[in-house]
Amino acid sequence: MSTKTVKTETAETVAAWTDETDAWRAAAVATGAADRAAAEAGVRLAYRAAGLPEPERIVWADSPRAAVRLLGDPDGAWGTRVRGRSVREGVRSRPWAAERERLHGLLGPLGWGRRWAATGGRLWENTERLADRIRAGLVEELAEDRSEEAEVRLLLLDAVLGQHDAAWLCAFGPGAGTPLAGLAAVARSAGWWWPYESLAVVCERPVELHRDEAGRLDRADGPALAFPDGFALHAWRGMPVPAGFLAELDALTPERIGAEENAELRRVMLEHYGYDRYLDESGAEPVHRDGAGVLWRIPLPDDEDVVMVEVVNSTPEPDGTHRTYWLRVPPDTRTARQGVAWTFGIAADAYEPLRET
Question: Is the pTM higher than 0.85?
Answer without folding.
Answer: no
